[in-house]
Amino acid sequence: MSPIAINPWLALVIAGLLEVGWASGFKFVGPQRPVTSLAVGVAMLASFWFLWLATQKLPIGTAYAIWTGIGAVGAASVGMLVYGEPTTTIRILCIVLIVAGIVGLKLFSGAPA
């Protein structure tokens, strides 16, 4: 039984979004930025905690793959939209394929919606 009552899919989405935050925040971590570094660390811990909550009800392989997929798509998107990383057709296609995999894992996980 989970320590709090939350939809495991919602917990997984929150975990993934927090992963996007801490992964994107790595650009600003360092001893000269203690508050930012602390915020990234807190986001990381919160992301893992929500992932743990999700895995109490969802298959671990599905939850982990979706968590990393949300993080990968989100971090790549932040990189392109915020940090000026290249936005090429092939990069967009790869992101679309990751999203398709995430949707497929959700649809065929066998876990309740």
TrEMBL record:
It comes from the Bacteria. Coiled coil: none annotated. The keyword Electron transport does not apply. The keyword Transmembrane helix applies. The chain crosses the membrane at residues 33-52, 64-83, 89-108. Its main location: membrane. It is a multi-pass membrane protein. It holds the Pfam family Multi_Drug_Res. Keywords: Cell membrane, Membrane, Transmembrane, Transmembrane helix, Transport. Gene3D superfamilies: 1.10.3730.20. It is found in: Cell membrane. Belongs to the drug/metabolite transporter (DMT) superfamily. Small multidrug resistance (SMR) (TC 2.A.7.1) family. Gdx/SugE subfamily. PANTHER family: GUANIDINIUM EXPORTER (PTHR30561:SF0), SMR FAMILY PROTON-DEPENDENT DRUG EFFLUX TRANSPORTER SUGE (PTHR30561). This is Guanidinium exporter. It comes from Brevundimonas vitisensis.
